[in-house]
Amino acid sequence: MNAENQEIMQQIISQNQRLLQNLNTQRHCSCEVQQLVSEIIGDPVADTTEIRLPFYSDYGRNIKLGERVFINANVMMVDLGGITIEDDVLIGSGAYLISVNHQLDPHHRKELELKPVLIKKNAWIGAKATILPGVTVGENAVVAAGAVVTKDVPANTVVAGMPAKVIKKSTKKDVMLEISRLIFLNSFFIAP
C-alpha cells in the first residue's frame, strides 16, 4: 500500500473512531443509530436493520449490511478485509467478526493478511461467537454461542465448539421456526 492510500485509510479510521465514540457514549434514537452507522460504513443502513449499542469496528468502510439484519450489543467487526452480512441475519451479543490476521513468520508478523467474511441470508450467529478471517457462514446456518469458526459453515447446519464443527443438519423450516420463536420472545423485551 502506498503512502497516499495509507494516509487516506488513517483519516477514515480517525473519523470513524470519533463517530463510534459518539455512537457508543451518547443517547440516540434508532434513526440516529442508523445514520451514524451509515456514516461509519459509507453506505445507507436499511430502515429494517437494527443495531444495539455499543457497536464496534476497527475500520468501518468495509462492512456491507443487508435488510432486516439484527446486531445485538457489544458486537465487534474487524472489517479491513471486508465483512458482508446478507438479509435477515441475526448476530448475538458480544460476537466477533474478524477479517484480518497477522503473519505467523515473526519477521513479517506486523504484516496484515486480509480475508473477507461472508454471512449469508438468514444465518444466526450466537452470542460471543467468533468468526475468523476468510469464513463464509452459509444460508440458514446457526453458529452456537461461544463457537470459534475457523472454516466455512455449510448452509442449513448448526455448528458449535472450538473449533466449530457441524452438530446438526437442519431444514430451512427448522431454522425459520427457531427464528420466529426468538423474535416472539424478543418482542417482550423491546420497549415500544
Task: Give a nutshell description of this structure.
This protein has helices spanning 3-25, 30-41, 172-186; strands at residues 50-51, 55-57, 63-65, 70-71, 75-78, 83-85, 90-91, 96-98, 100-102, 112-114, 117-119, 124-125, 130-131, 136-137, 142-143, 148-149, 157-160, 165-169. With 192 residues, the chain is an alpha/beta fold.
Major beta sheet summary: 7 strands, mixed
State the end-to-end CA separation. Answer: 48 Å
Shape: globular
Output the helix-strand order.
HHEEEEEEEEEEEEEEEEEEH
| Helix fraction bin | 25-40%
* Cα-based radius of gyration, to the nearest Å: 17 Å
Q: What average pLDDT do the residues reach?
A: 90
Total helix count?
3
Describe what you observe in this structure:
There is one protein chain. It is built from 3 helices and 18 strands. The protein has a 7-stranded mixed β-sheet with strand order 1-4-7-12-15-17-18. It is an alpha/beta fold. Strand 17 and strand 18 form a beta hairpin.
Helix and strand topology:
Blueprint: H1 3-25, H2 30-41, E1 50-51, E2 55-57, E3 63-65, E4 70-71, E5 75-78, E6 83-85, E7 90-91, E8 96-98, E9 100-102, E10 112-114, E11 117-119, E12 124-125, E13 130-131, E14 136-137, E15 142-143, E16 148-149, E17 157-160, E18 165-169, H3 172-186
